[in-house]
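User: two proteins, same treatment. go.

Assistant:
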Amino acid sequence: MRFASPCRSEGCAQWTGTACGIIQRVLDHIDRLPDPPRLAETLPPCTIRQRCRWFSDRGRPACVACDLVVTDQAAAGS
């Protein structure tokens, strides 16, 4: 699931004290894939990048994760 709502930082169980813990776990998972996706030279269009916690915390590598997480629950069959 991709979160587009404002970050609650200390009010969230995923907060590490300095950053969102979810994106680091996702990036660690991506690094363990047999053929991990890589970020293109140009960032893909994004409507939330300016306020994206993941981008703020991890920069360009966070954009790789967005293609691998569910962003539309209806499309995921739920």
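Protein 2:
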Amino acid sequence: MADSPLGESPSGDGPSGESPLDEALSGEPPSGEGPRRRPTGRDVARLAGVSQATVSLVFSGSAGHRVSAATRERIRTAARELGYRPQAAGRQLRLGRSGMVLLAVPNLLGPFFGRVLTGVHGEAARHGLSVVVSSGWDAAELAEAAAAGRFDGLLVCSPDDKQVGGLPADTPAVFLDADPAAHPGRPTVELDLAAGMRAAVDHLAGLGHRRIGYLRSVHSAHTFRVRQAAFAAAAAGLEVRELAVGLNEGSREAERAARELLAGPGRPGAVVCDDDVVASGLYRAAAELGLRIPADLSVVGMDNIPVAELLSPPLTTVDLPGEELGRAGLAQLTALLDGELPSPVPPLATTLVVRRSTAAV
């Protein structure tokens, strides 16, 4: 049933077909110390109908395309039913300190995460650590990577709802741009997103705009829920027209949504975008409709990624300090690795960067 090229036969040199290392990883007590034992990788393999080698691939995070998604899920289900989890002592026996940390982001193509990675890399170099980046891993995949012990600790940045929960309790982990309530007991470094969104709306209102559009992300994540709640509070009393956009579809999807937002009578004279990639799509839609920025339409983005300065005219946007977020997160993680309880970090300040995409009515 296994789709691993390593076949179905149990591998190992122990009397049960399981190596001493696998026994250490499983937490099984030596024979003669009582009848109770923890489930092993061999037990998981038997229940899932796969080889032990396939189980090892999955829990080491090395399965890739060698093991199908259906088989990986069958192995995870079997592990949950048995209560199987590689133990911390076994991880230390296998690797000790690997010198590597994992930075998990929802979408590596998101330019903001490049800023975060820059900060993480810089701080990691000071501590002699290397950084590996994962993109789009769900909670189960993150838990597998943590349990396998390939990484000393995890940084999880701007997690979407599929990435929340499931990490082993003994895994050093820090969450960035995330909901502290969703990760009790874990250090969390937040951005002051609400203040940034208020600054964006107040800037437009101060320029005399009373009819404001909002291109909001439908991505299911805490970071966007905070932005949207802050926009609703700041724009109370203004005439608002909102339209949803899927960020994972890129700027072309944003262009389509922006065209709908701007077409027809009663169009807004200013638009706030949930991020700068959406704003770039809005620029194209405005040009197609013959609208000039900022003479006919003021635009504000959020993130302050490099493209913001390259747009014509340069984009007014809320700077989210990605580099500082990465540095602060890695500092928290190294404290955990040293056995310390990190001091809480206040929400990192966001700043409205006013460029030439906004003008008075």
